[in-house]
Predict the 3D structure of the following.
Amino acid sequence: MSDPIDDPVLEAAAATGTPYEIVPCDPELADTAAFCEAYGYRPDQSANAIVVVGKSEPRLYAACLVLATTRLDVNGVVRKRFGVKKASFASADETAEMTGMQIGGVTPYGLPADLPIWIDSAVMACDQIIVGGGSRDRKLLVPPTSLGALPGVVIVDGLARAIEPSNPC
């Protein structure tokens, strides 16, 4: 493990008291599909951290973590959890402003204390899960117990839905 000093992501991962592995990656291959193909990880053991926004005044934000084989239920579960009429994905600029991280590197580790973290329960059923590492040049391989140990985490049943295979007809 790298020394977590002066790195809020690694500091947060270490603070969970569970082991983690830093997986270096080419920043050009940081997006999940490209990363999985290039480095041999399966999408069902990879999770995407997505910042969402509730369209209200004031705007509400949360970071959601879902398996790469699923789609975040923004218009259903997320909207209802926020208690708003409309919710959407945060823009890349909003995500960077809220997290200090670029899309492709966003992780639940090292997020601001006031940003809720909602994790789909399917993520917690994995033996190990690969998540963003806080930058596009690394990922973290962690046990789900590490994610569950983060402050402010809420495990949400049905936060994401399985992606339906496309019908070629």
About this structure: Strands lie at 21-24, 47-54, 60-67, 70-72, 87-89, 117-120, 129-132, 138-142, 153-156, 160-162. Residues 74-82 form the longest helix (9 residues). The chain is about 25% helix and 25% strand. Residues 117 and 153 are 5 Å apart (CA to CA).
